[in-house]
Design a protein that fits this description.
Helices cover about 65% and strands about 0% of the residues. By secondary structure, the chain is an all-alpha fold. Helix 1 crosses helix 2, helix 1 crosses helix 3 and helix 2 packs across helix 3. The radius of gyration is 16 Å and the shape is globular. The chain starts with a helix and ends in a 5-residue tail after the last helix.
Length: about 100
């Protein structure tokens, strides 16, 4: 079975992931400013404030778990492929037009 510290860590991370997903859902519904997608980096930052270390893959798994638990689709989580697409779009936008 889980050790107490491992179980506590899991519960804390799930609570943080649920909070992030819920905030993004509220922002989307109410039209509030701020990000409407939860990124793994957001969860990592919140966890760091609680002295919990985790990597990108683990953060993404926790966000996915919270998203599925709430019965939501993929559009509330920012996946690494989405970030790569955004960065390529920003680079293309910054390049000067060729005449």
């Amino acid at each position: 079975m889980f050790k107490t510290s491992t179980k506590r860590r899991h519960l804390q991370l799930m609570r943080l992931a649920r909070h992030l997903i819920g905030e993004c859902q509220r922002r989307r519904i109410l039209g509030r400013p701020g990000p409407i997608k939860a990124a793994p980096d957001d969860l990592i930052a919140l966890a760091f404030g609680r002295q919990i270390q985790l990597d990108q893959d683990e953060a993404l798994r926790y966000l996915d778990s919270a998203r599925v638990e709430k019965g939501l689709n993929r559009e509330l989580v920012l996946y690494p492929a989405d970030v790569d697409d955004q960065e390529q779009g920003e680079v293309a936008a910054e390049e000067p037009a060729q005449i």
